[in-house]
Write a structure and sequence with these properties.
By secondary structure, the chain is mainly α. The longest helix is centred in the last third of the chain and has 37 residues. 27% of the residues are buried. Keywords: Membrane, TPR repeat, Transmembrane, Transmembrane helix.
Length: 330
């Protein structure tokens, strides 16, 4: 087997590794409609994949639910759907009405705070988020302290906020990130940053300075886990996409790609044996499939598409590595 085929096998096996480690985040409204069903790949924030197709029908169903039951959760969910649609003024008006009907509901205060922030009224957002935290200190998996720090940066109009301003720590200026936090503290911090970023990325597209900084810090935490260097590189790349510019980021990203290469070399023998075994199975499968030309043609097309995708992936990986290597030496 030539080196190129070997590299393709490596990519396939690494892909299997990634897809085998998933957690699911599901949100259902009061009327049982599923809004999103996301999979969590380690700690790579990608935002919610909203599944709503017929917004008017969904809103009508929620309104009918409220008329029948007088359960404010239906109205609150209607406001959430309006936020997804980008109808912030309408959603804010609804939540303020809910607040009048029944004051001090956590979801009402939290959503009003979120809406004010999305509308650029950061002081009001800060006050409502503070209120929501007082109502439910453990809200949003205990990560709202970071939301408050983000709003403080916006209110103070800090030009170049650092990660340390937001999270109260840093991971050094060396190529390899370091920390004095315990494993438990680091995991809690990682959870908080991921949660806040995943919510923000759902509504805020690149570029955004605060998101870029927090992505860099999330990547730094991830880089200290040697088993997820592929995911770490994805987080760093996302940080760059959102506008973060730093030689340190480039150096740490380059380390990720170097570790990916080391992984391939270290596990070369096992991967080679797996590839040979796969070739043998493919030969046996091909002989059986050829008995039915139609199935064979379909499978052949499928393999061709997969091969093309892997070719593109390998090309992209090589170009990124080459570009970062050049940045490091310049």
């Amino acid at each position: 087997m030539n080196r190129f085929n070997f590299f393709l096998v490596v990519l396939v096996l690494m892909s299997f590794k990634t897809f085998a480690c998933l957690n699911w985040d599901i949100k259902r409204l009061k009327n049982k409609v599923e809004v999103y069903h996301d999979h969590k790949e380690y700690y790579v924030p990608k935002g919610h994949n909203f599944k709503i197709k017929d917004f008017p029908a969904l809103i009508l169903d929620l309104e009918r639910g409220y008329e029948k039951t007088r359960d404010l959760d239906y109205l609150s969910d209607k406001g959430y759907v309006l936020i997804i649609q980008g109808k912030y003024d309408e959603a804010l008006k609804l939540y303020l009405e809910i607040e009048k009907i029944k004051p001090n509901r956590y979801s009402t205060a939290s959503n009003i705070g979120t809406l004010y922030e999305l509308m650029g009224e950061n002081q009001k957002a800060y006050e409502w988020i503070q209120k929501s935290v007082k109502i439910n200190p453990n809200s949003h998996e205990g990560s709202e302290w970071l939301h408050i720090k983000i709003l403080e940066a916006k209110i103070k109009k800090i030009q170049n906020p650092t990660g340390e301003f937001f999270i109260g720590t840093n991971f050094g200026s060396e190529i390899v990130a370091k920390t004095n936090l315990s494993d438990e503290e680091l995991t809690k911090l990682q959870d908080a940053i991921f949660f806040q970023l995943n919510e923000r990325i759902s509504f805020i597209k690149p570029k955004d300075q605060i998101i870029s900084v927090l992505l860099f810090e999330l990547g730094n935490i991830s880089s200290m886990n040697e088993n997820v260097f592929s995911e770490t590189s994805e987080i760093f790349e996302l940080s760059r996409k959102y506008g973060f510019q730093s030689n340190l980021l480039n150096e740490r990203l380059l380390v990720c790609y170097e570790k990916m290469n080391e992984y391939c070399l270290k596990n070369g023998k096992e991967l080679y044996e797996s590839a040979v075994h796969a070739d043998t199975l493919n030969d046996k499968l091909a002989k059986r499939i050829r008995k039915n030309d139609n199935i064979f043609n379909e499978v052949l097309i499928g393999f061709s598409i997969i091969t093309l995708i892997l070719l593109i992936c390998s090309g992209v990986f090589f170009l990124k590595w080459k570009k970062l290597k050049k940045l490091k030496t310049s």
